[in-house]
User: Fold these one by one.
Assistant:
Number 1:
Amino acid sequence: GGNLWVSMFRYLSLGQLDYGTTYGLAIFGLFLLIPLSVYALGRAFVGKTAGLVAGVLMVVTRGGWYDLGWFWILEMGVWPFALGACLTFLSLIVLRKAMREGGLGRWVGAALILTAAVFGHPMSILLLGLCVPLLVLHHFMERGRDGITTVVLRLFGIVSLAVLLASAWLIPFVAKRAYTQKLGEVWMRLDEAMPLIAQLDLFGPEWRLVFAAAIVGAVLALIRRNPWALFFVTASTVMMLLASTTVLYSLRLFDVASPFASIQYPRFLGVVQVFVYLLAGYAIQELVRSIGEWRERWRRSNTRWNLAKNVLFLALPLLMLLPFVPGA
């Protein structure tokens, strides 16, 4: 995936740039893609303001190991996962639209972006494997079970086409997995993670306010029954559970299938952080919307006559106390 990304900039420059400049442009393009893909996901799922807030937060995120912050990408030089994650975010947008509305053009577009996400990084296979079923579930939460067969058939067709397009890479990847180096990395136990969540320290103390806003956003999503804000809550919860060693060892996943030992589970937290930003943006968006609605109701209810009566009502007690003020 990383090679294809750099090659794309090489072709766009018609081969006129040296490798160092081409590589620099590719990294610059990735730094543009990260906040733009997060903004696009937020705008499509929960609203423009939520996407804007999350996109801006991604720009200033230093991050740590295995995530989408600039430290891991720029200082450590490990960025294909960020590319795959961004393409996964875009694929969720296109896939949801194609799943709902159908059409050959949308089918092909969704299959192509899914293929690009898989090419971007192998972790995208796991991210899509977790998010696509949740995408279907929250679609039915929003629209009910009407047309369930049509939606499932559309989804099956899109995924089948994507697998066919990606088979040139998927088949060798699966067939030669025994020759790959085992670079798996575990995260932490749930009893270690829960105190960090309770103290709002999951992503470090500098993000406590954002994490608190995300919790408010999750509560608002539950109260207002917003299925797509709840999608981020559900996906984040599932990813953290799967990343925890408590679940991995309890389900004996390493014994069930050896490929589970090759996964770097802390990478899930990089995506969870993006979803936390989106939930925080959703909370801010709903706050701004509520203030706007309150101002509009106040403006409509307070005509000039009503405003004069309110001022008189507030001033009358003060005028009655005026004779008792010394020197008045």
Note: The mean pLDDT is 84.
Number 2:
Amino acid sequence: HYESTLSKGELYQIHNDLFNSPPTNFELIESINSYTEAEKLIKNYRFDEATQLLNNSLKIFNKNRQKKIVVSILLKLRKIASLLNQDEIAINYLKSAMGVAKSGEVPIDFIIRIQYSLGKWFYKTEEFDEALSHFIIIVNFLEKEETITDKDDFLGMAYLYLGLIYTKQNELAQSKIYFKKAFQLGNSSIKVKLKYHLMRAKYYKSKDNLSQAQKSLRSGIEAVGLDYNEKKNSSILFDLVLELAEFYIHHRVDSKKSLYLMKKIEKRLYLDLKKISGIRRAIRWNLLMCDYFDILANDSNNSTHYYKQSQILINQLKKIGVLG
């Protein structure tokens, strides 16, 4: 059976690239099959079963010193913990992954991903000096390194986070330098271009500078156009549109603009309901439509309809286990 598994290349081929050295025993083949099975379970929101399979595989791969796949499993476990809002567990997985990666034999792409995730985490928890150190490592490495997948995305996002951190620390000359670098990299990375406008808008909004927030949101949408439909980054466009629609519903009241924006993304938003992030966006969209009909259109029937739709989606998330 072991020979036939190898010769057919069943599943093993799929994650061939994750082995430090070719698998030499049946236990390893079984574990890679479990890893692949866990990926399917995650897609179907069966997180407990996936976690169990990944943890079992982790022990085998650790024992056989297969560091690449150990890091990959730790990143998957971290993703599950994040989805289930288990923040402390998620950060521990990340730190473990970094520990394994530092001991060598792990591709630089993995190390950059871990550094980036740690930087984002510390930014979110407002531990800015910690966040800074991770993003600076990324910048120092990627400014020299030519070959890494999604290099411009990671480098541009690191610049953007550094700009935001230095702004929050009131080091405005530094922040200006990094914002400029991020803006320029937006020319070769759509993700960076859209995130640049979205994250700066959210910062302005947090400081009650709503006119500047609106300006940023409009610039972000205009950068690609409302019909932009590249799957990889369309979710960032949806976030820009939802933020701007909220502005027109709650702040600078504009019934036509808000409804136009909301209707423009409705169909595409609903195509993304297989992902938890897609369900969350659809909840926000329905709650904003509820507000639109309540505040601007004085239409309680439609307002109630969209509120009920949002509750159906919220219940879906509760069933999956990602909402309390």
Note: Residues 1-14 have pLDDT under 50 and may be disordered.
